[in-house]
Design brief:
InterPro entries: GxxExxY. It contains 3 helices and 5 strands, in the order ααβββαββ. It is α+β, with helices and mostly antiparallel strands. The protein has one domain: Trna Endonuclease, Chain: A, domain 1 (3-Layer(aba) Sandwich). It has a 5-stranded mixed β-sheet with strand order 1-2-3-4-5, with helices on both faces. Helix 1 crosses helix 2. The model has no long low-confidence stretch (mean pLDDT about 95).
Length: about 120
C-alpha cells in the first residue's frame, strides 16, 4: 500500500501543477490531456480513456466503460470540471474500482478555486 500512496501523492502533485497553471473553468478533456502529459513527464505509465470491460455471468461487454486515466495499472483517475461533485460521481468511481479490482481511485474536480477541495480519494 505504501507504493500506491506514493503514486497517489505524485498524481495529486501533477494535478496541482495543472490546476495552478490553467485554473478552473475549462473542459474536463483539457485537464485530462494536461494531466496525462504531466504524469508521462515524470515517467509514469498512463493510459487515457482506457476501456474497462464489464463481466456479467457469461456476458462480456468489451467496451463497457472508459476510465479517464489509468496510472501504472494501479490507480484510476476520474476527472471532473463541474460545480459540485455529486454522489453518483463517487459511486461511478467505486464501480470502476470494483470492475478493475483495484484498491484506490482519485476523483479530481478541477472546477474549484482551491484544488484541495476538489480531490476525493476512494479506497476499496
Amino acid at each position: 500500500m505504501e507504493e500506491i500512496n506514493k503514486l497517489s501523492y505524485a498524481i495529486i502533485g501533477a494535478a496541482y501543477k495543472v490546476h495552478s497553471s490553467l485554473g478552473p473553468g475549462l473542459l474536463e478533456s483539457t485537464y485530462e490531456v494536461c494531466l496525462e502529459y504531466e504524469l508521462l513527464k515524470i515517467g509514469l505509465k498512463v493510459e487515457r480513456q482506457k476501456l474497462l470491460p464489464v463481466f456479467y455471468n457469461e456476458i462480456v461487454l468489451d467496451a463497457g466503460y472508459r476510465v479517464d486515466l489509468l496510472v501504472e495499472d494501479s490507480i484510476i483517475v476520474e476527472l471532473k470540471a463541474v460545480a459540485d461533485v455529486a454522489p453518483i460521481h463517487r459511486a461511478q468511481l467505486m464501480t470502476y474500482l470494483k470492475l478493475a479490482d483495484l484498491p484506490l481511485g482519485l476523483l479530481i474536480n478541477f472546477n474549484v478555486t482551491d484544488l484541495k477541495q476538489g480531490i476525493n480519494r476512494i479506497i476499496m
